[in-house]
Amino acid sequence: MTTMVSEMLRTYPADLGGVNREAMERCIAECFDCSQACTACADACLSEDMVAELRKCIRTNLDCADICEATGKILSRHTGYDANITRTQLQACAMVCKSCAEECERHADMHEHCRVCAEACRRCEQACNELLATL
């Protein structure tokens, strides 16, 4: 199935160099999916009766959502590419996804949205690390 990410990478008018397109495509998609999952999880946490106990989870979700969205955007831009910026952003994204997954996993047995979010974070962390290994 063709995704918007793959279509945009396919139609980019310049050479992307030696970048692994599949790893790039997967990472961009996982970043945007994780951002959405984290935003939705934070909102769901705010609807829980024990919202005060979920304060750290909410904060971590929102931080992760912002960093994942920024990473997806940075990876979507290829003109004037700076490998150092991309590498640093991917490292930050993998780190925040790991932290967010760990926090959500603490609540996953009580809140299904935290379980789903943790899975999205783990997929994004893995995609970032896989792309990093190809740079």
Q: Which parts are unreliable, with pLDDT below 50 for 5 consecutive residues or more?
A: none
Tell me what portion of residues adopts beta-strand conformation: under 5%
Distance between the termini: 26 Å
Mean pLDDT: 92
Mind describing the biggest β-sheet?
Answer: none
* Annotation field: number of helices: 5
The radius of gyration computed from the alpha-carbon positions, rounded to a whole number of angstroms, is: 16 Å
Oligomer state equals single chain
User: What's the count of strands?
Assistant: 0
Overall body shape: elongated
Helical content, roughly? over 70%
Going by helix content, strand content and strand pairing, the class is mainly alpha
Helix/strand order, N-terminal first: HHHHH
Task: Please tell me about this protein's structure.
- With 135 residues, the protein is mostly helical.
- The chain is built from five helices and no strands.
- α2 (21-47) packs antiparallel against α3 (55-76) and α3 (55-76) runs antiparallel to α4.
- The longest helix is centred in the first third of the chain and has 27 residues, at 21-47.
- The mean pLDDT is 92.
Topology (elements, then pairings):
Blueprint (H helix, E strand, L loop, with lengths): L3 H8 L9 H27 L7 H22 L6 H23 L6 H23 L1
Helix pairs in contact: 2-3, 2-5, 3-4, 4-5
Features:
135 residues; mainly alpha; 76% helix; elongated
What's this model, at a glance?
The chain has five helices and no strands. It has helices at residues 4-11, 21-47, 55-76, 83-105, 112-134.
